[in-house]
Amino acid sequence: KEREIQLWVASCLRERARGLYSIVRENVEDDDKEVDISAFAAGVGHVPIEIKPLGDHSVVALEQVVATQLIGKYMLPPDQRYGVLLLVRLKERKWRHHGEQLGFQGLLNHLNAYSASVGSRLGKEIHVAVVDVVPQGLAERGASRPRTAGTKRRPKARAKAKGKTKATKKTKAKSKSQAKANAKTKPEGRR
Predict the structure, then answer these.
(1) Threshold 0.70, pTM exceeds
(2) Which residues of 25-60 are buried (b: 16+ CB within 10 A; e: fewer)?
């Protein structure tokens, strides 16, 4: 799953580059440390982009990605000041942190504050970016996933749909008979 996301992100970034930067996927750094994607831009230098599908990652695990992977490995050289943590939200969920339950926006706020705090102490800047693939309205309904083809509706909803179908058939039949009657009463020259 993560590999497909990396390929997609790299492809999207390449399409939009317009000569401003170049993209490389999975560079092997010293000691076999791999960066998901790297951007190289004149005047900015090397910018590692670490991609994390949110799945089952805890808040602490995501903090470790910032501190250990991005800052501790990929941004270790003094000339690498910028990095990106790209979170991909695949489903609606909550996170527990210090006894609090965080929604998606709460998680983003926390990670942005954490990244700014850790980064500023070392002269580094980490931007937390998001690709949200959860269908619109899913979070508001409180559903864990959208209803897909083949799943059953509640009987009440089906009964309403059948009622509408019968009414629609009657209306269509009435319209056809009205059209025939109108055709018969039109003068000969207008047919």
Answers:
(1) no
(2) beeeeeeeeebbbbbeeeeeebbbbbbbbbeeeebe
Give the integer Cα–Cα distance in Å for 57 and 41.
Answer: 30
Distances from the Cα of 49 to the Cαs of 9, 11, 22, 81, 189, in angstroms?
10, 14, 13, 12, 74
pLDDT band at 182 (very low <50, low <70, confident <90, very high): low
The tokens describing 35, both together, are 């960066």
Q: What would the pLDDT profile of 116-148 be if each residue is shown by its tens digit?
A: 999 999 999 999 999 988 887 655 455 444 444
Beta strands in the chain (DSSP E): 22-28, 34-41, 45-53, 82-89, 95-97, 100-102, 125-132
- Kindly tell me the burial class for residue 175, based on how many C-beta atoms sit within 10 Å of its own C-beta (0-12, 13-18, 19 or more): exposed
Torsion of CA 93, 115, 30, 33, to 10 degrees: -10
Q: Is 97 a residue whose pLDDT tops 70?
A: yes
Q: Higher-confidence residue: 180 or 13?
A: 13
